[in-house]
Amino acid sequence: MKKKVIGTPFQQHVWQTLKRIPKGKVTTYQRLAKMIKRPRSARAVGNALNVNPYAPTVPCHRVVRSNGEIGGYASGPKKKISMLSREGVRIIRGKVTPLHKFLY
DNA sequence: GTCGTGACTAGCC
DNA sequence: CGGCTAGCCACGA
């Protein structure tokens, strides 16, 4: 079994950082971008998640916007809300509440 | 709350 | 190889 999915160091870093987030916690695109030394690449981060070959391995549903909004999800925003709600994250009107409390 | 601009990468022709 | 477009976005006015 040789999983040689490299893609780009950028994407790998994004996935690795996202994977290290504990359950019941969430993060924002901007914060995640800063973690990977690319504070201006919040977009690239979102793009990386969209193409992530580790879909079930990378909890992309734990990533929300800085505004606390769910943003989007490759499998459907409803799914994202359902998963977060299932982990104990309170979603009100499609937004994480209180976001700061669940921020990693 | 809305509008417009900025910054980064991947994919396609 | 070179240029252009789109994306799970963010911030300031």
Secondary structure layout:
Layout: H1 9-19, E1 27-28, H2 29-35, H3 42-50, E2 63-64, H4 77-86, E3 91-92, E4 95-96, H5 99-102
Parallel strand pairs: 1-2
Antiparallel strand pairs: 3-4
The protein binds a DNA duplex (13 and 13 nucleotides) through helix 2, helix 3 and strand 2.
Question: What does this 3D model show about the protein?
Answer:
- With 104 residues, the chain is mainly α.
- Helix content is 39%, strand content 8%.
- The chain has five helices and four strands.
- It has helices at 9-19, 29-35, 42-50, 77-86, 99-102; strands at residues 27-28, 63-64, 91-92, 95-96.
- It has a two-stranded parallel ribbon. A two-stranded antiparallel ribbon has the order 3-4.
- Strand 3 and strand 4 form a beta hairpin.
- Helix 2 crosses helix 3 (42-50).
- The protein is globular and about 35 Å long.
- It starts with 8 loop residues before the first helix and ends with a helix.
For the largest beta-sheet, the strand count, sense and barrel status come to: 2 strands, parallel
What's the alpha carbon Rg, rounded to whole Å? 13 Å
Which structural class best describes the helix and strand composition? mainly alpha
Helix content: 25-40%
Query: Quick one: overall form?
Result: globular
Stretches with pLDDT under 50, minimum 5 residues = none
Q: Give average pLDDT, whole number.
A: 87
Number of strands: 4
Termini separation comes to 33 Å
Percentage of residues in DSSP E strands: 5-15%
> Count the helices. How many?
5
H/E element order: HEHHEHEEH
Output the strand order for the largest sheet: 1-2
